[in-house]
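B., you asked whether I could sanity-check this one before it goes into the benchmark set. Here's the sequence:
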Amino acid sequence: MNWGRLITAMVTPFDDDLNVDYDQAVKLAKKLEHERSSALLVNGTTGESPTLTQEEAYRLIAEIKKNVNIPVIAGVGTNNTKKTIDNINNIKDLNVDGLLVITPYYNKPNQESLYAHFKAVAESTDLPIIIYNVPGRTGVNIGVNTVKKLAEIKNIAAIKEASGDMAQFIRMVNETPDDFLVYSGEDILTLPSLAVGGQGIISVASNVAGVKMGEMIDAFERCETEKAAKLNLELTRLFDALFVTTNPIPVKHALNLLGFNVGGYRLPLTNPTPEVSRVVKESLAVL
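And here's what the prediction gave me:
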């Protein structure tokens, strides 16, 4: 998969009436492409996918896909296997470059059920699939042994591993085939994950810090470890600030503060508090 090392999980811009602002979304996608994103994830958690309608998600993916020259990955996962497959079928004419499928949430399937879910989803499409493991949001962790079994399925190509457990991340890297890509889903672990053999990052922070993150990844690839470590240290405050409260509240606020209007939030998300605003604003000094 030619998704590269820096995949940005795009925010979804809204207008003053909280309608999806498709023109601004295209502008943001082009901006991110220019700022070193190697691929874009559309309709993920950072894109407020739980509050988008099926029609909005379809149009958003379509508009971005036809306006950028980098891969576009579509977020399609739900906690309902049939609905996930329906979501895939509904966008099959858009020629996206991959699918992100989250671990089912709320119903908390066991490991055998997780395997059956992802296997059924994979069998419904020829597109490459990225499993998304984020137990902090879903309430269930997909174990290494389950990932190893899923990696044997032809079009299950990668995992976005956002458990925060580096030991688990390392095992996933070491115990899966070389062509199975293990991405970090934690911005603050971008450099450590590269150092242990990870493919890269599916990032929130690159909505605002793509250039500097690209420089850090370049330095790592050139074995310029001191430079990479220095850039990582500079970015750490920003990484922390962008998760000081529920994502994507801080990153949308950061874009607005930087003069790129992405609007507000659909309930149940609300505007940042003054304290969150202060923390985010101060962290932008690194850029």
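One thing to flag: The first strand starts at residue 6 and ends at 9. Otherwise nothing jumped out at me.
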